[in-house]
Amino acid sequence: MGNALIVDDSSTERKILVSYLVEWGITVTTAESGEEALEKLSSSIPDLIILDVVLPGKSGFEICREIKAGENTGKIPVIICSTKGSEMDKFWGMKQGADAYIPKPVDKEELFSTVKKLIK
Question: Which of 7, 56, 65, 98 is the S-S candidate for 93 at Cβ 3.0 to 4.6 Å?
Fold first, then answer.
């Protein structure tokens, strides 16, 4: 079904997201920080990025802006997946260029329908 990059500093959250995506036939690469994600994007372009907001170093919002501004990465769908789930957080995430915003804890069915919609 494609490949995805998961960016989350929590090993537990990464494992949960990886297990969901692998179950749906998606190949997964992970990164623990935004900087690591940007480094990985310089050598491989995924079909989808799942991005946490609270990360060491740059925030997920900053990373999302950088991804969307990139010549090679601007068209990659980004799902922000965060414990910061207020309406203002969602609004701000979408203003940064995110294609979807899913609050944690992640609902498996919501994630699946969002992924399916964004990976054609």
Answer: 98
In angstroms, the CA 49 to CA 18 distance is 12
Residue type, 94: M
Question: For the sheet containing 48-51, what is the strand order?
Answer: 26-31, 2-7, 48-51, 78-82, 100-103
pLDDT in tens, 29-86: 999 999 999 999 999 999 999 999 999 999 999 999 999 999 999 999 999 999 887 8
Domain limits, the chain: 2-118
| Second CATH level (architecture) for the domain 2-118 | 3-Layer(aba) Sandwich (3.40)
Gap between the Cα atoms of 74 and 88, Å rounded: 23
